[in-house]
Specification:
The chain has 131 residues and is α/β, with parallel strands linked by helices. Helices cover 34% and strands 32% of the residues.
Amino acid sequence: MKAIYLQFILGLLFLTACSNETPERSIAHRTVLVYVAGDNNLSAYGKRNIQNMINGAGSNHLNGGNLVVYYDAADAAPVLLQVKVGKDGSAYTDTLQHYPEQNSMDPQVMREVIHEVQSAFPAQKQGLVLW
């Protein structure tokens, strides 16, 4: 009897886990994209500014918002980074995407990156910083 009861419970758990429903994506209060077009002689300053963003985001200063950075450095292909805060309160970056070498100042490239960030990080308010 116990075995049948256990099989019934496991079967219910399995069916619940196989649900086709996708969980609702939470919408942040704010998402800010910092678009660092540093494929030039200012690239080192861009890297330093990103480190400053990481330092400033520590101790939960993101307030539940999203800080995303598109960084096109002089010596590397562009990347999309997210500044995150760990459980210990320290901030770090998570690389979301590596792009092929591209002209980050091309309006079409900018449009695509902005759209990608808006889709991946929905928010009540959106911000854009052009660097």
